[in-house]
Amino acid sequence: MLLIRSLELKNKYFLAPMAEINDIAFRELCKKTGASLCYTGMINPLTQQKLQLEDKPAIQLFCTSESGIAEFMKKYDKTARLWDFNLGCPAKNARKLGFGSFMCHNLQEIDKILKVIRESTDKPVTVKLRKSRNINKIIKIAEKYCDAICIHPRTQEQGYSGKADVEYALKLKKRTKLPVIYSGDVDENNFKKLEKKFDFLMIGRAAVGNPGIFSRLSINKQSERISFKDYLELAIKHKLYFSQIKLQAMNFTKGLKTGKEMRRKLILAKTTREIREIYSI
Ligand SMILES: Cc1cc2nc3c(=O)[nH]c(=O)nc-3n(C[C@H](O)[C@H](O)[C@H](O)COP(=O)(O)O)c2cc1C
User: Fold this and answer.
1) What is the CATH number of domain 2-216?
2) pTM: predicted TM-score of the whole model, two decimal places
3) By CB count within 10 A, which of 70, 85, 136, 170 is most buried?
4) Beta bridge partners of 82
């Protein structure tokens, strides 16, 4: 049995945190097909939004100070399997507000935040990093409070383009005793090689519109083709917004022969019924 702190994990494959993509219906599908841990997208602990976390995901936080963390975690600790802190987001909004990869220079604040997270839970705590000048210093802080680190070895400037630097992640693994969760371009073709090098793997874009991928990674699972219909049933059960359903309807056209034509129609769809018609379901 694999472990992070006292969390038992049935395999090495996690659904990577993805804002907008990882709604509760999508996470449930990934869990069903074999992901041993499914992350939420990043959540601001000061959010007033109603959160749907009944599936017990790994919850990822982003923020620029400790404000509100303890209260938020108290409220949701029962529903979290693990808590992660985002130090990797490269988005414009993160630049503007100073969170994610844009707070990597602020070691004092990172220390304070991770300390509060650690003190607010007995569940595993992790931190998600990118390539950064301060990475060694951040790892030293993480070693005081965290149970694992996650590395997506691209720079802030790279965003999601270019190749993820596996060698960089390997060097980092050699430098720390903490388990390392690797994120970056993991797919059905390379996971076997990567899982020998790292403790855990995150699947991000390869799972978008394709949650069945997890059934093809675990040896004792039968390959499952999960369709948009499966997603839609869960989305309706969880009363997800139409805009979210439409986003996923676009994603699930990935790999379909008629995908391009379907997307052209989906852009114009205004009701779930129209989406059903486009999918013939
Ligand atoms: C649409 C999208 C949203 C993302 N949102 C987050 C997020 O909220 N938090 C985070 O740490 N990483 C986020 N990421 C980064 C992924 O977790 C992952 O590290 C990155 O995409 C590289 O892995 P991949 O090549 O498997 O996609 C996001 C990526 C994508 C494509």
Assistant:
1) 3.20.20.70
2) 0.97
3) 85
4) 58
